[in-house]
Design brief:
The chain is mainly β. The chain folds into two domains: about 15-135, Anticodon-binding domain (Rossmann fold, 3-Layer(aba) Sandwich); about 170-340, Beta Barrel (Porin), CATH 2.40.160.20. It has helices at about 40-55, 70-80, 120-135, and strands at about 15, 20-25, 30-35, 55-60, 85, 95-100, 105-115, 170-180, 190-200, 205-215, 215-220, 225-245, 245-265, 275-290, 295-305, 310-315, 315-320, 325-340. A hairpin with a 5-residue loop joins strand 5 (about 85) and strand 6.
């Protein structure tokens, strides 16, 4: 049955019971006496290091040179130790003596050996293991060295990181509809709009686009009807202001207008077909909104003037001028093709 030990901090007292010295109480650290013999320094030093690592107090006792070495019991009791160790003269084993702290009598007396022949380090480790196991059975525990004090610093209060800015589209494909208003006698018409926009910086972009007519623009007189199909190819640059996912821009550029003019006339008049070309410098304003990182909406208003003037004639009479001025409005979806997130 294990002996109840008093709390750490009580002192060791030795009392006489017959001829034996009895350990009363529990010391600050369990003391082990290690007897030194000639030529045993390597084993003794390793035993000393292992015992101290386990929390034992170790006293190295130089044994007097004599024909009859002192017994381990005598060495341990003289130094108030619960156990004694000594390398045997043959260096093939380590002697152990352990006292029973409840009775003061010898609890264990043995020689620890190993099977692998001469191995000082293995022998030292084996003897320490045996000693510790025997002491545990007797209810004697070592006091392990105190763990290093770890000071935990409270983490500094930090504000949550700001949300990531939306990804900026470097290249978008633009798909939408355009509608042209004619200020002359020609009728208004709708077009399909396709384009690509390159934005090397968030504040500037270059775009190319085409407007393909879905309707023809017409003018009618008593002499007949003239129909104009207007196909437009454009290049432009824009400066941008952005507020989060919203933006506004102002830009300028030029259009190449390819006009297919077809006249239909009643006899005695004869209709003709012509293909005309005109340049249309323009300015434009637009507003945009990012629905998602890869998807945006853009509303644009464009104004330009065709040069040279393109005149529609019926019976040699000027009845309309195309593109003086040219006014269009466009609503497009901007689909991200290549994007990056600004720093």
């Amino acid at each position: 049955m294990a002996t109840r030990l008093p709390p750490a901090g009580s002192r060791l007292r030795l009392a006489r019971r017959g001829d034996a010295r009895v350990r009363i109480g529990h010391p600050l650290g369990v003391e082990i006496a290690v007897a030194r013999t000639v030529g045993d320094h390597r084993i003794t030093n390793r035993v000393n290091a292992e015992l101290r690592a386990l929390g034992f107090e170790v006293e190295l006792v130089p044994e007097a040179r004599s024909t009859e070495p002192s017994s381990l019991r005598q060495i341990a009791t003289e130094h108030g130790a619960v156990a004694g160790l000594r390398a045997s003269p043959s260096k093939t084993g380590i002697e152990l003596w352990i006292v029973n702290p409840a009775t003061g009598a010898t609890a264990y007396e043995e020689v620890v050996t190993i099977q692998s022949g001469r191995n000082d380090e293995l022998l030292a480790l084996r003897s320490v293991e045996v000693l510790r196991a025997r002491l545990l059975k007797l209810g004697v525990l070592s006091n392990p060295p105190p763990a290093p004090l770890v000071i935990e610093h409270e983490p500094a209060l930090t504000s949550p990181p700001p949300p990531l800015p939306p990804r900026t589209q470097l290249l978008t494909a633009d798909l939408g509809m355009a509608y042209a208003w004619e200020t002359s006698a020609l009728s208004n018409y709708a077009s399909a709009r396709f384009g690509l926009t390159l934005s090397p910086t968030p504040t500037f972009s270059l775009s190319s686009f085409a407007m393909l007519p879905l309707q023809e623009s017409q003018v009618s007189q008593s002499e007949g009807t003239a129909s104009v199909h207007s196909t437009l190819f454009g290049l432009g640059g824009d400066a941008h202001l952005r507020w989060g996912r919203l933006g506004a821009s102002l830009g300028a550029g030029a259009l190449l207008a390819v006009l297919s003019v077809t006249g239909e006339a009643a006899p005695p008049y004869q209709g003709q077909h012509d293909r005309l070309f005109a340049a249309v410098p323009f300015i434009r304003v637009s507003g945009s909104a990012r629905v998602a990182d890869w998807l945006g909406l853009n509303l644009e208003f464009l104004a330009g003037v065709a040069t040279p003037p393109t005149v529609v004639r019926l019976d040699l009479e000027d009845v309309a001028e195309w593109g003086r001025p040219l006014l269009t409005g466009s609503l497009t979806l901007q689909l991200g093709v290549l994007a990056h997130r600004p720093e």
